[in-house]
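Structural prep section.
Before we set up the soaks we want a predicted structure of the protein with pyridoxal-5'-phosphate in place, mainly to decide which crystallisation condition to try first. Input record follows.
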Amino acid sequence: MTPRHPLRPESVIVAAGRPAHEPGAPVNAPVVLTATFHAGSARGYARDGQDTTVAFETAMAAAEGAPDGDRDGASIAFSSGMAAAAAVIESLPVGAVVVAPASYYNFHRNLLDEQVRLGRITVRTVDQTDTAAVVAALDGATLAWLELPTNPLLQVLDLPAVATAARARGVRTVVDATVATPLGLRPLDHGADVVMHSATKWIAGHSDLLMGVLSTSDPALAEQLRQRRTLTGAVPGALEGYLALRGLRTLSVRLERACDSTAVLARRLAEHPAVTGVHYLGDPDHPQASLIAQLLTHRGALLSFTTDTLARADAVCSRVGLITHATSIGGVESLIERRGAYAGEAAQGTPAELVRLSVGIEHVEDLWADLAQALA
Ligand SMILES: *Cc1c(COP(=O)(O)O)cnc(C)c1O
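Run finished without errors. Recording the tokens verbatim:
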């Protein structure tokens, strides 16, 4: 990338991670499908990473404001978001103390709970929105696992305050910013040590792959995480790397459409007689509205809502036609599911009637017509 002026994030994700601008060179990073490389260089085996994945990592590092290292910058791609999280959590030393949110992506809770069951770590659960409680829990801790905003309740924590307090106590902070996307929030700018994304979601954006990515501005930590990936073989395939990079290129336009539609749908849902509550980052009465205004550059393409009865929550999911009844978020196609149906969600206080809607890029009036008939 040879920009002639500092680029805005929407331009960075288009321009970064491309081959050198040379006559006859390809404009896009080629898909390199190989498990091994000819002997005689530092690179021997694809477990260390692939050229295509490196291009994705270079673009992500630029987007996150993590420095570009000599090899693949300070973003490290993984075979899934869970593999990325596991690289952090499963490399904690025995006896580590982890501060974790009371409500967050429930498979991360499963990952931490498993480490507790194995007798390796202890977890202190805190309400992330209670900054004083989070800071109090940091004393003597090893790692704070944070999520901003949370999936599916869209809670927002005071990241600058928590990151500053953690740094003063030598506690490492990791922020899962999947729902914010790299265009909505750059946690490293607010003092976080590591930002994690499930690239499966908005980054890749088409529900056609699993991938995760960690970014850090600490080169030593980046190297540790990269070595962890090599050790466990949690490396993404080249086709996934290619598709994730291709997805990243169009993130800003997909988000713009989806966020606009989400605002409309959130407002109409809130007025619907069968809907008892809506969780949406753009709600002026959101309990963390001022933090949202301070930290997030968009209001997101995710909302969740509760209905008057459990039967209706299930009916909405089964009656939709355009919207797809399936788990996951962040695709161009709108996805809906009753998140409260998961035991792991119930265990962390998600209401049983909570329906999560990931808004895609279909026409907003078609989405509303579909929701309205499903709610009727
Ligand atoms: C989906 C998701 C993950 C897990 O990522 P996978 O790519 O599915 O392994 C982690 N955090 C959040 C917030 C997610 O939505």
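Observations: The two ends are 52 Å apart (CA to CA).
Flagged for discussion at group meeting.
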